[in-house]
Input
Amino acid sequence: MSHRHATSAELELYVLGGLDPERAAVVEEHCASCDACARGLAGEARLEVAFEQVARHAERAPVVARPVRAAAYGAAGLVAMAAAVLLWFGRAAATPTTGEGTAAAAHHTMQDGAILDARNDALDGG
Amino acid sequence: MKSFADAAPPFGFFTAAAAQRAPAAPSAAVPLGPAAGDDGALCSAALGGDAQAWSALVDRYNHRVVVALLARGIRIDRAKDIAQEAWMRLVEQQRLGKLDRLQLPGLAITQATFLALEAQRREAAARRHDPIDEPKIACALADPRGDAESRMMTEERVARAVEVLSRCSPSARKVFRLAYGGEGLSHAEVARRVGLSLQRVRQILCEVRAKLRAELEGEDER
Output
């Protein structure tokens, strides 16, 4: 029997089937008679079986928004809100309350003035 | 116990080399030809009694059977013997026309687990002083893989492991899913599917294992 204990990496590689046949045979021979290494090998094997459970779970798990995506969605929301605010102010600025309204008022005032002048002229007999 | 090679006429396709190679999980020696990934065709041929197809399936899946037995705390030498016998039983069932479906490695693992529990029952009976734990054996027989898994994993730990997995790169997740998911491909087949070398696939799996280990081992850390 081999007296050197198997390393964690060797046990992991054995379970993954990645050891060359010679080294695998040495690990097997040692684990057949070494309680500590046999326990280590069983632990690696349990992990291997557990991964199948994780994979099955992952396959049926709903797609979760990852942090990066969540941040991107948040930023997009803020941009949309800012755009909405700007649009609202822009439309507010375009309503006829300042420039166009004043011009219209001035236009009306001028018209009213002309009418008054014409009436005064008529009263004066001119 | 009788080895594949000793079991001449009915199991003549098990060469001595295959018997020696299979438990050690051949790595670079796994052929990557066009038929390597065609599991369905191999299983169909095996169901038709094709010895070479059986041999290829043993080469491909025996290591998974051995690992499943190791996970149950069975020693490596014993696990290899039981795995051999499980394959021989499957071939025998096929020859007797009792096998109409061949879903691997699940069927071989179930057969091997049954044999392991049967051996445990016989040993307990032989010792006489040790009472046979009938309820435990019956429970394990009803769901041969459930017992080990329920001991190992809680839903919460699985969920945490899935979360850790979701933070791995997309290529690592794909390799993990192909190797451990429903298809349960061999590493050689995973390498062929994703266009990477076998060594690179194992390296990726080792990296993912390192990330998941802490979540899965939890309080059972060695």
Q: What stands out?
A: The CA atoms of residues 4 and 32 of chain A lie 13 Å apart. Chain A has three domains: 8-60, 65-95, 97-126. The interface with chain B takes residues 12-21, 24-25, 28, 31-32, 38-59, 61, 64, 66 of chain A (CB under 8 Å).
